[in-house]
Write a structure and sequence with these properties.
The chain is α/β, with parallel strands linked by helices and about 180 residues long. The chain contains 7 helices and 4 strands; from the N terminus they run αβαβαβαααβα.
Length: about 180
């Protein structure tokens, strides 16, 4: 577990996909996969860390939950200034309660602004969490350079469909099947 950090793990995955083990030996049947990594746009120095992962072979980035689009937009601008190809999926976590928001605010790498916590505390809980997530999805989709959103919840799967419907994400787009060798 402690042998490889995130960048080294991406590098190892890319090496395997390209037909080589870390020791340089050839892999007879390399795995075929799309390599993803995480990013914490609210954390200091995350742009550099994200770009290290991209240089190591990451093909898509999925971010920690975004609750404040302004600093996320600044992070996105800096990443896009230096790399235009990596796909970026912004995380949107649907909050269920003020208590949950308070707990999340203590997690390193998650930026939960005071106004969101206040809305959750003063609002009607679940419905306010849905409203915040819908607003966030709409704002993120308007940003150039965001390739998609990952809407999720904690122990509340019904919330994802509610947000998807209210944010105009349904019906889902049809994906063209691509023949693979």
């Amino acid at each position: 577990v402690q042998d490889l950090n995130g960048v080294e793990l991406v590098r190892a995955a890319a090496s395997l996909r390209d037909g080589k083990l870390l020791n340089g030996q050839e892999v007879k049947q390399p795995p075929r996969y799309f390599i993803g990594a995480t990013a914490s746009p609210a954390a200091s120095k995350d742009v550099e860390r994200t770009l290290e992962k991209v240089a190591a072979g990451t093909q898509f980035i999925q971010t920690q939950p975004v609750f404040d689009v302004t600093p996320f937009s600044q992070w996105l601008t800096e990443v896009r200034r230096r790399d235009k190809d990596v796909a970026i999926l912004a995380g949107v976590l649907v909050l269920r309660s003020a208590d949950q928001a308070a707990r999340l605010a203590k997690i390193p790498g998650v930026a939960l602004p005071d106004d969101v916590r206040t809305r959750m505390r003063d609002g009607s809980g679940e419905s306010e969490g849905i409203a915040i997530a819908v607003e966030t999805v709409r704002a993120l989709r308007a940003l150039p350079g965001v390739n998609g959103v990952h809407v999720y919840s904690i122990e509340w799967p019904e919330a994802v469909a509610l947000v998807a419907r209210a944010a105009g994400l349904l019906p889902r787009p049809r994906v063209k099947e691509v023949a693979s060798a």
